[in-house]
Every structure is written in C-alpha cells, then in structure tokens.
Write a structure and sequence with these properties.
6-stranded mixed beta sheet; Rossmann fold; alpha/beta
Length: 259
C-alpha cells in the first residue's frame, strides 16, 4: 500500500507521514466522556495497513463512539488519534437521501464536481449498476446497504469503517453482504474496522477480533483460519467459544446429532 499522510483527530500532535512498518491507525490514551462519565477510557489501538479488524462488545461499551472518533465525527476527546486522510464510513442505516437518485447519493460529499461515471464504477463494483437511476425508496434493504458501500468506496479509502452495516438485514441478505465486503476488502487492500455484535460475523471476516469493555480493549485474538472460513471447523468453534466467554455469554452446547 502506498504511504499516506496521517492527521490527528485532535489538534495535536502535528500530522505525520506513515512508513512501511507504521500502523494505518494509531490510538493512544483515548478518552471520551459524556456528562463526566467516561465511555472510552484510556484506549490503546493499532490497526495495520490492509488489516481487517472486528470490534465486539456489549451495548454501551463505546464501540460506535470509537468508530465516530476514527471517522472524525466526534472531536471532543483527549488522547492521540492518527488515521489516514482517506477514510470512509458506512453505518447500519444506509442514510440515502430520498430526493436523489442512487448514483447522486453515491457522490454525496465528494469535493468538486465528480462525473456520474465515478458513481457508476463504484455501483458496478457492488453489483448495483443496474439500479443507478433508481430512487432510494425502491431499493431493498440489501440494495440500499450496497449503495451505502458504494458511497464509501468512491472515496478510495485507506481505512473503511463499518458500524454494524448488516444488522438490519435478513439472514440470507446478510450472508451475501458479508461475502461482498470480504471480496471488496481483498480487492481494495484497505484497512477495515468492523463494529459488530455478531461473533460469527467477526470470525468469518476479520484477521483479528477485539473485545471492548468499560471503554478499553479488554481482549484480542488473531483469527488464523484459512479463507473462505467454515463455521463447522473445530478451530472456528473454539474461537467462538472464547469470544463468547469474554463477552459474558455462555457458549451453546453442541447439538445432539443422534436426536
């Protein structure tokens, strides 16, 4: 991956340029409080260039707050946050403007006057090129989420931030969306931080899984499994049980195959 300029989300320290061995994301001593209550408390995190990281944790542990900080949407923080200049975020809700056709939604927020062809290329990459002229209200949930991903991809991000982007999808559409994200990541080579509540999703997609608790990264584990991954793999099951335990969830007993 080409080197890129990093900038702090806070005003200090000064911007710096990454080298080959430097993380794509570096967070040190990050604290964010609301009404005096720390939601993020002295958090430390590095993400390598091109690494896919999944962030798990109970509701209210600060996962989405951390993502918003990395996206530059929340700057009321203490600590150091260094992120790539080129980054993009996709949320659980696609957030498409209903009065703009799909291709115009994809270009929202881009500087200058980008041509329609820029949107068309991104829509083709997510398999939505036939719906570029559609109105958002006519899209299915999966199509709307793909349009949201296309809007992120046109920014050519070195860091892609995903905040539970599949949470509102039905089971089959969710599987297809997960496969699409895996393909896009492998093709693009950008770093990805996925916030999710789904342990299987984290293990299917990520190089590394993190568990956040009380505003800090409380646990992490590499996901050293061959791709594509198989949830029936005993190694997958062991990693799932370990993460569920860290999340305070009792791992379900294996099904009785003789029943």
């Amino acid at each position: 991956m080409a080197t890129d300029v990093h900038r702090p989300v806070t005003d200090t320290p000064e911007p710096r340029t990454s080298s080959a061995g430097e993380p794509a994301v570096r967070v040190s001593g990050l604290t964010r409080d609301f009404d005096g209550r720390p939601v993020i408390d002295g958090l430390e995190l590095d993400v390598r260039p091109g690494e896919f990281v999944a962030l798990l944790g109970r509701s209210g542990c600060g996962k989405s707050t951390l993502l918003r900080v990395l996206a530059g949407l929340d700057r009321e923080i203490d600590g150091t946050v260094l992120v790539p200049l080129r980054r993009a975020v996709a949320f659980q809700a696609p957030r498409l403007m209903p009065w703009k056709r799909v291709w115009r939604n994809v270009l929202l927020g881009l500087p200058g006057r980008p041509e329609r062809a820029v949107a068309e290329r991104a829509l083709e990459e997510v398999g939505l090129d036939q719906r570029s002229d559609a109105w958002p209200r006519t899209l299915s949930g999966g199509e709307a989420q793909r349009a949201s991903l296309a809007r992120a991809l046109v920014r050519e991000p070195d860091l892609l931030l995903l905040d539970e982007p599949f949470g509102a999808l039905d089971a089959l559409t969710r599987i297809k969306a997960q496969q699409l994200v895996a393909e896009l990541w492998q093709r693009r080579g950008c770093a990805v931080l996925l916030v999710t509540h789904d342990v299987d999703e984290a293990l299917l997609l990520a190089d590394r899984a993190l568990v956040m608790d009380e505003g800090r990264i409380a646990y992490e584990t590499p996901v050293d499994l061959p791709r594509p991954r198989d949830i029936a793999d005993p190694r997958f099951a062991r990693l799932r049980a370990r993460l569920l335990d860290r999340l305070g969830v009792e791992s379900p007993a294996p099904a009785d195959r003789a029943a």
